[in-house]
Every structure is written in structure tokens, then in C-alpha cells.
Amino acid sequence: MTRVLDKLDRALLMCLQWDNLQTADRLAEQVGRSSSAVARRVRRLRAEGAIEVETAVLSDTAAGHPLSAVIHVQLESHVPHESNRLRQRLIAHPQVQLCLDIAGAFDIVLLVVAADMEVFNAFTLSVLEQPVVRRFETSFVKKRHKATLAVPLG
Questions:
Q1: Please, what is the end-to-end C-alpha distance for the chain in angstroms?
Q2: How many other C-beta atoms can be found within 10 angstroms of the C-beta atom of residue 65?
Q3: Residue 7 CA from chain centroid, whole number
Q4: Residue 139: what are its φ and ψ, rounded to 5°?
Q5: What are the per-10-residue average pLDDT scores of the chain (154 residues)?
Q6: CA 15 to centroid of chain Cα atoms
Q7: Dist CA 121 CA 114 (whole Å)
Q8: Is the distance from CB of 67 to CB of 113 less than 8 angstroms?
Q9: Considering only CA atoms, which of 48, 43, 35 is closest in space to residue 5?
């Protein structure tokens, strides 16, 4: 998307990123426009790529993944083909919800879900016990207070 978002675009996107199942009538009430104008604008935002994906956010527990862990990974080597191969495995793994390159003592941070400790341990053995990984530290999530992909839109 190359077009600059105007005030109406930002207002609609703010509403949609919190609940993308809202009707055009409900969105129109929130942004002060007609439902037909809102429907056209939302179609355009989708077509232009301002809205990349529309998805359902599931409860970890309902999905059978009550265990969540934040894992900090320190690489042994920064040789691109080795570290990129690890990143590709992490990104492709269904238990990995988040994978970020970070600055500091660690190189990668992950958010991983698992059905139980046995499944979590199997994940670490199969994915993180690699020569390219110097070490990793795990912090288990006790309680999730907020989880969102919403982006502030000024």
C-alpha cells in the first residue's frame, strides 16, 4: 500500500482491528459516515492491502495449549545460512506464535505454546537443541493480561 491513510481510513482500521466482524452499519455509527460509504472504504482498504489478514484469535486453553513460554535464544554463530535455517524452522513451527530478532545478550525471542510440559520439552529438543544455538532461557507465562496485534493509528 502506497497511499497515505486519511482520518477516515485510520478510524475504520482502529475499529476493525479490535473487531473485524462489525457490520457496515455499526462502523458507520462509530465514524459518522453512511454505511454504503463505509462499506466502499473498507473494500478499498482490503484491496489496497491496508488490511493484510483477517483472522480469529483463539483462546490458548480452548485450543489445547494452556502452557505458554517466552524463550530467549542466544546464537552460537551468526553465519547467515546457519542462523537463517534456524529462523525458518522456528517460523514454520506451529507452536511458535512470535519470533523476533532482538538486540542485546540474546538474538531471538520466541513466544511458544504447548499442550503440556512434555510437548514443550519435545519442542525444545527438536528445534532448539541445535549447534547454532549457544543457549536459551525460558520464562513460563503465569497469566496473560494482554495479547494483541493492534497497531496504534494516531
A1: 18
A2: 20
A3: 25
A4: -120, 125
A5: 87 93 96 96 94 86 89 93 94 97 97 97 97 97 89 85
A6: 18
A7: 9
A8: yes
A9: 48
Q: At residue 40, what is the residue type? A: R
The Cα–Cα gap between 82 and 107 comes to: 13
Spatial distance between the Cα atoms of 51 and 142, rounded to a whole number of angstroms: 32
pLDDT of residue 112: 97
Among 12, 14, 43, 46, smallest CA distance to 27 is for 12
Q: Could you give the residue range(s) of every CATH 3.30.70.920 domain in the chain? A: 67-140
CATH no. for 7-48: 1.10.10
**pLDDT at position 57, please?**
82
Look up the pTM and report it: 0.81
CATH numeric code, 67-140: 3.30.70.920
